[in-house]
Amino acid sequence: MKIKNYIILLFIGLTAFSCVEDDGIFVEDHFLNEEVPIVAVDADYVVGAHYSKFQWKSTVTEEPTLGKYDGERGDPEIYAQHVSQAQTGGIDYFLLTLRSTVNVAEFQTDSTFIDTLQMASNAAEMKFALSYNFGSMGLQDSKRIEDQGLVSTFLNDFKKMMPFFQMSNYMKVDGRCIVFMDGSQDLHSNDNKALYDQLRSQMSGLGVELFLIGYQNSWTPPLRYDFRFVDCVDAVTHDTYTTVSKYHNERTTFFQKMCWQAWKYHQETFAANGIEYIPTIAPSNNPLINNSGSQNWVVEKDATWFSDNCNVARNVAGAHKLILVDSFNDWNRGTQLESANTYGEEFLQILRREFKVN
Q1: 140 phi and psi, to 5 degrees?
Q2: Which residue of 191, 208, 316, 319 has the fewest CB atoms within a 10 Å radius of its CB?
Q3: Is residue 109 classed exposed, middle or buried when 0-12, 13-18 and 19+ CB atoms within 10 A define those classes?
Q4: H-state helical runs in the chain
Q5: Which residues 6+ apart lie within 8 Å of 263 measured at CB?
Q6: 289-335: pLDDT as tens digits
């Protein structure tokens, strides 16, 4: 009898529970069910593009409309046409690589390349900024910059940038010279804040204020390297999110939505720490050029896809409306915007439409 009464009470309880409105989680609540908001282009964004120095790989199948020019030594005549194309695309400045003086030959090669480009007839019409690369220092957690005795080299590298900073077409934000800190997630230091404070103090004494852009790998959480960025750099960007393993089906299938959710989280998290977030976009990415056996996703050039990704970037742009593009002319990775025989200036025109009022 007791068992019977228990079963009846249980049945009544389950029936009553089933009549209560379920306020649980539905499929509609999943973040991938959200649509990326369309942000109108009601003001110009500030667009920078990585400009590559390279040797052509034999596996590059596309060809620029300018032909396969010398991408290693620089050509003022070619650069003049690149400037014109960049203006078509609404690009405000190029990021040019400058490697550390820890390898004098590399520094000299890069600085000569930059100087050569500035000889173009219209070079003054295109702003540029430096992408500082300290990779040749060989820093590791067990080989920090102080322990290796390379702090003075680091500081001296910026002193040697002074001739570039003083040029009329050097890119600035609020009067501060932009420097992209390539690989800065790996700037191993005993105290990154103290190192950056020393750098800023030195450059201020020379009459130059810096706007430093930190960098970290794509698909990584924003505060994984907080000790390298907070109270150190002014802004942070991630490497292009188009680097995706083809086994991450969710990232390829829902790329724009996942990109939006990730970048939105980065923007909010960095902003809470006084750092501006800068989205980095790419029109395409072909890892097979460098590695025929690559297991990464090939992002073909697609006008709608690229337009959608530009809209995602507009959603998360910070106070200065800064956008970075990887790249203008990295043909060896297939990320180029530069005009080609196959697609003409289509992706330059998309870039302008997506980030400029006119």
Answers
A1: -140, 170
A2: 319
A3: middle
A4: 2-19, 76-88, 104-117, 151-159, 162-165, 192-205, 226-229, 249-253, 255-271, 303-316, 346-355
A5: 238, 277, 279, 312, 313, 315, 316
A6: 999 999 999 999 999 999 999 999 999 999 999 999 999 999 999 99
**Is residue 348 within 8 Å of 325, Cβ to Cβ?**
no
Please write the tens of the pLDDT for every residue from 140-155: 999 999 999 999 999 9
Q: For residue 346, give both structure tokens.
A: 């289509």
Task: Give the DSSP H or E segment for 273.
Answer: none
- What is the bridge-based pairing of β-strands 322-325 and 93-99? unpaired
User: What are the phi and psi torsion angles at 150 (to 5°)?
Assistant: -110, 5
Q: CA-CA distance, 116 to 74, in Å (whole number)? A: 6
Residue 245 has pLDDT above 70, yes or no: yes
Q: Which residues pair with 285 in a beta bridge?
A: 299
DSSP-assigned letters across all residues of 5-54: HHHHHHHHHHHHHHHSPP-S--GGGSGGGSPPPPPP--S--EEEEEE---
Contact yes or no for 332/288 (Cβ under 8 A):
no
- Buried residues in 299-309 as b, exposed as e (16+ CB within 10 A): bebeeebbebb
Q: Where are the alpha helices (DSSP H) in 206-302?
A: 226-229, 249-253, 255-271
How many alpha carbons lie under 13 Å from residue 166 in its C-beta half-sphere?
9
**pTM score:** 0.91
Cα(154)–Cα(5) distance, integer angstroms:
81
Number of helices (H), then strands (E), in the chain: 11, 10
CA gap 175, 105 in Å, rounded: 31
Whether residue 29 has pLDDT greater than 60: no
Length of the chain: 358
What is the dihedral angle through the alpha carbons of 99, 245, 31, 303, rounded to the nearest 10 degrees? Answer: 70
Q: Which of 276, 327, 235, 317 is nearest to 46 (CA)?
A: 317
Q: Find the distance separating the first CA and the last CA of the chain, reported in whole Å.
A: 83
State the Cα–Cα distance between residues 347 and 300, nearest whole angstrom.
12
Query: What is the per-residue pLDDT for 32?
Result: 74
